[in-house]
Specification:
Layout lengths: L2 E5 L2 E3 L5 E8 L8 E6 L5 E7 L6 E3 L7 E6 L4 E6 L8 E9 L2 E4 L3 E5 L2
Parallel strand pairs: 2-11
Antiparallel strand pairs: 1-3, 3-8, 4-5, 4-9, 5-6, 7-8, 9-10, 9-11
Length: 116
Amino acid sequence: QVLLVESGGGLLQPGGSLRVSCAASGFTFNNYFMNWVRQAPGKGLEWVAGISSGGATTNYADSVKGRFIISRDNDNDTLYLQMNSLKPEDTALYYCVTTLRIGAYWGKGTLVTVST
């Protein structure tokens, strides 16, 4: 059974930093590209960042480029998103997402709230 479990969300002030994690199981993690996708309250889905199977290639949405860093630990089947210089507009539910041969899989998300 494919499982993606996000953790690490919380409430922060603008300018703060936070690292969220995604624990993967049920598939060969180091064979697949991984993504972070977010959904702000009342808005649609926004792709945030992606990382290749080996971790050598990363891509970012313009809205987070230079502030967020995606990484992965293939020894422990874990995906990370380091978020720096957080802004109120980064408030969202952050999902870990991958597409396997049998379909796309999403975690249940972790909530990040940036507010004074």
